[in-house]
Amino acid sequence: MRGRGLPSGLVRIAREASYTSQNNRTEALRLEAVPGEAAHRSSYTACQFPRQGAGKHTWQVPCGTEAGSSRQTSHFFRPRCESHGKLEVVDKRRISSVRVARVTESVGGRIHISYEGIEDDGFWCHERSPLIHPIGWAQVIGHDLRASTEYAKSSLEKALLRKYGSDEASWDMFPTVQSPLCELKFREGMKLEAIDPLNLSAICVATVTRVLRNNYLMIGIDGMMAANGSDWFCYHASSPCIFPVGFCELNNIDLTPPRGHKGEFRWYEYLRHTKSLAAPVSLFKKDIPKHGFQEGMHAEAVDLMEPRLICVGKVTKVVGRLLRVHFDGWDESYDQWCDCESPDLFPVGWCQMVRYPLEPPRQPDTGYLKKKKKYQPYKGPRRKKKMKYVAVWCQMVRYPLEPPRQPDTGYLMKK
């Protein structure tokens, strides 16, 4: 199930292709749920969920706009998923490129994407994911496009003339990205810190490798970049997944240095050694919404290395708008950094509400073989306990009765 992942909906991609490799039940009942206004505000408004000391549980009807936001969510995917709406999507096999794809399924704002022209299972993501774009997006901003010359030409014309087919995603179906307020701009070669798109538990030393149009950037992880740039990833300048130099040190977060770096990493020495400039702090997103997330809160979170799975997650660190999510039952190396407004975070109970399967926490490993129980003296034949009358109430009123859960006996047991 688990492994290293890509941001917001891509399945695992092995870096080896581009370079040489890299407490008790009472407590459980008192888990605090992530507040509705903090999680998944894209397709559903704030929901009131069970909280410690709360007197009632209330739910609100799904809404098409974000709570407290002027941005509108796309209405393209839900009504047109049956007609196989076409759009441009990051290529999961080469994340520095995009491909033409179609929406094949939609559940609660989450959509399944299938690439055109190749045999592939596709992947799941949210309709607000930064991985998906309208027709003509790649040509307009100058991003690498893996498609025919004919498509490249026609998609650019459609984007410029704003004339699309009935099954094509147009620009007005996506939220407008913010433009930098200052006059300074990102330049190629500038250094920064960024969430590794191939390992979401790490924030790494990174470089702006290309500056595209409309304030989009290609970012590469220092010491891990492929020679052909196939593992560069596109972030917008306003992305909450990129940070200024010194961000991790200031907020007591482990910064992953470039591969092969020896000794303690110091930004000043590294910038001098590489003859590089740090990206100005004023270029980065600074607004922090009142999201309500606190350490220890639980939520339902997409496992971004297996984006079809939504798992039980726990917020273990909050730094401004940045959250670290831990998956219950899994090692910390599988944690994920994400933004407080990530479309891959949902309130407790969301999966049940939209009838999407929720992955339970992983059970602790009790060993491959179960140990033999100690000898117990013979106490005579076991007597069958009499069933109390309350136990047959469900049968009497014809209401389904859940059977007792079977104990986990392990994969093999000794005789």
UniProtKB/TrEMBL annotation:
It holds the Pfam family MBT. SMART domains: MBT. The keyword Transcription regulation does not apply. The keyword Repeat applies. GO terms for cellular component: nucleus. InterPro entries: Mbt, PcG_chromatin_remod_factors. One of its GO terms (biological process) is negative regulation of DNA-templated transcription. MBT repeats lie at residues 44-148, 154-258, 265-361. Keywords: Repeat. One of its GO terms (molecular function) is chromatin binding. Gene3D superfamilies: 2.30.30.140. This is Uncharacterized protein. It comes from Ornithodoros moubata (Soft tick).
